[in-house]
Design goal:
single chain, about 120 residues, mainly alpha, 4 helices
């Protein structure tokens, strides 16, 4: 691979920056970013779990109706799946609020230290 001198310098500098010692301020900013990311990831995990489980239960209800000719049982199972899927979005918001309450004190403390 033929790289120009400028491209080689960029590659070397990007690798070198990974190994440079970070200042405490940079570490605190990264910690703030990680804590902020944990808020959204907690809600996303909740929504995915409930959405997938609900969809699988709903699909089982559809199979009961379409394939196994169990109409009443299939409708009940399908409705249960829909209820579980409908909990995904409100559950996501609730999980995010709980996580936000957990990390808000740490974020405020770190942000005050960084802004000083």
């Amino acid at each position: 691979m033929n790289m120009s001198e400028e491209e080689m310098n960029e590659v070397v500098n990007s690798i070198r920056s990974k190994y440079d010692k970070k200042s405490t301020r940079q570490e605190k900013v990264e910690e703030i970013e990680n804590l902020d990311q944990s808020v959204t990831s907690a809600g996303t995990v909740w929504a995915l779990v409930y959405g997938i489980i609900g969809a699988l239960i709903f699909g089982t209800g559809m199979c009961c109706v379409i394939i196994w000719n169990r109409m009443v049982f299939g409708i009940i199972i399908g409705l249960l799946g829909m209820i579980i899927m409908s909990l995904a979005i409100p559950g996501r918001k609730l999980a995010m609020e709980r996580q936000k309450a957990k990390v808000s004190g740490q974020i405020k403390k770190l942000s005050e230290e960084v802004l000083e």
